[in-house]
Design goal:
The chain has 149 residues and is α+β, with helices and mostly antiparallel strands. It contains 2 helices and 6 strands, in the order H-E-E-H-E-E-E-E. It has one domain: Thiol Ester Dehydrase, Chain A (Roll), CATH 3.10.129. Helices cover 17% and strands 40% of the residues. A hairpin with a 4-residue loop joins strand 5 and strand 6.
């Protein structure tokens, strides 16, 4: 599975897709990035006259790269986009620096464990100046869709 195929298999689309590129991935680690565009929908109200990326969106970006993309890679032999889906089950993130419109962020995640289709990772986000934006732990699960066809 290629890095581009991993992103294509995500169950998200714009405006809720926060992955531009997977830079590196192996059985223990993933790195990826995303650029927050000036016209993202959430900047209109957060904050008036001084747009800042909400922490929940930063967490989602970290989870999409560090848990969803990583999980799809780890399930590569069995992943079928029609049959599978992913969901974040928990997060514990600390924030250290703001992210503004136009900024590119880099996410790195290291696997803590992957068993029974549940993935837990230590995750960190950096800005383009290599300043730590946020770090913590995310976990999620891959599950079979129950959609009858």
């Amino acid at each position: 599975m290629t890095k581009k195929e991993i992103i294509q298999k995500l169950p998200y689309t714009k405006p809720f897709l926060f992955v531009d590129e997977i830079v590196e991935v192996n059985e223990d680690h993933i790195k990826g990035n995303y650029t927050f565009l000036h016209n993202e929908y959430f900047y209109k109200g957060h904050f008036k006259g001084n747009p800042v990326t909400p922490g929940v969106i930063l967490t989602e970006c970290m989870a999409q790269i560090g848990m969803a993309c990583f999980g799809i890679f780890l399930l590569k032999d069995t992943w079928d986009q029609e049959a599978w889906n992913v969901a974040m089950t928990s997060s514990d993130i600390n924030f250290y620096a703001p992210v503004f419109p136009g900024e590119k962020v880099y996410v790195e995640a290291d696997k803590v464990y992957f068993r029974f289709n549940k993935l837990k990772c230590n995750v960190a986000m950096y800005n383009s100046k290599n300043v730590l934006v946020a770090k913590g732990v995310v976990a999620g699960v891959a599950f079979k869709n129950n959609i009858e066809k």
